[in-house]
Amino acid sequence: MADWQLIIIGGGLSGLAAGIRAARFGQRVLIVEQHSLPGGLNSYYLRQGHLLETGLHAMTNFAPPGVKHAPLNRLFRQLQLSRKEFTTHEQLESEVIFPGISLRFSNDLNLLIEEIAAHFPLAADRFRSLVREVDAYDPFAERPWQSARAFLRERLAEPLLEDMLLLPLMVYGNAEEDDMDIGQFAIMFRAVFLEGFFRPAGTIKNLLDMLLAQYKAFGGEIRFRAPVDEILSKDGRVRGIRLKSGEELAAEAVLSTAGIPGTAEMSGWPLEAGRYTGRMSFMESISLVPELRLPPERSGKTIIFYSLKQRLAYHRPAGPIDPSWGVICFPDHFQGLARSGPAQVRVTNAANYDLWRQADEAEYRRLKADCGQQSAAAVRQILGDYSRDAVYQDSFTPLTIERFTGKCAGAVYGSPVKIKSGKTPWPNLFIAGTDQGYLGIVGSMLSGVTIVNQHLLK
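User: That's the sequence. What structure does it adopt?
Assistant: Structure tokens below.
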């Protein structure tokens, strides 16, 4: 008999959710995680007495407890967790800024509709129709790739509005360059504009502790510092894994959250690696500021999506980063959230993985410093000199993302080609997470749950 009914590669959010769901129904489950903490990129570390989160800026897919079919509430039911006891803080208000124009939005869709009516009056009714169409769209039906840009152009006929709507959706979950599949667009449009941003009370550590406690309560086991060297197979079926330590563990099924290229490398899955390796990676800078002084028009914002150019350039930049567009997040700016300690400002810009990868140690440090200055200079055009009195600053690069997520080329949103079924050439090896097409924290967790429900609980 196999050591385990299910081995899950990766202790990130999708792996933890899959583990809880399978263990809840009595399966013998083991999660193997290469690092010393769970969460993948959605984890944490301590600096100068402050707990800093490495992924959780804002969660998408907000819904109050009573909305039965909302993804967030459906997830909690699947994991047998109490949604009513899960305290949430909704966003205050977010903004998309392009030269000479901005659109505000919140968890109330009416604000965005009013903003579009004010700035793009000819498109107001078209946008309302688009909302109804997207809301009825099934993004997980198997169909050929379709252009979201073409979809928007045909329905709105406003190129600038098209870019302003796409920027938040792309930067929060698009693995492709310049365009995105209509199915991914529908997922992100609902997550960001129809449901909205929130964050849980406490920190990402509290969320991870809650998930780990539930997993262990159902009898699940997890091993840290246990990187996988190979997924073992025989006679057309996966039979377990070999750790880099040389230890072999037998399993009836394996679920990988390491992405398609990473899973292929471990299993010998013959596929064209370049086609499945994402090109979109990012650099993120964190600043801790004792007193954050913002221009009046920017105060009270939760997230600012900005472009200093008239057209959005969502693709891998020619240089190490592209500071001309990005995301500014204020993790303390949520309803009912009391700040303790310095304010946080997090800035995310597109980055070129290859240039970071080619740098030696000294060049890597220089790139971090130079790119941090470039990013801050761009953001000063929007916020003023916000970082002048910073007591701590740090940056994450594409190499950080690759190290902590296992995503090839630091492509945090995974492969541009998604496998919606989660199936692989082996009948008992599955993938979950962003490469299945589920995005965001709630989405990635639902991905793990869905694979277990559809393939492992029968």
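The chain has a mean pLDDT of 93.
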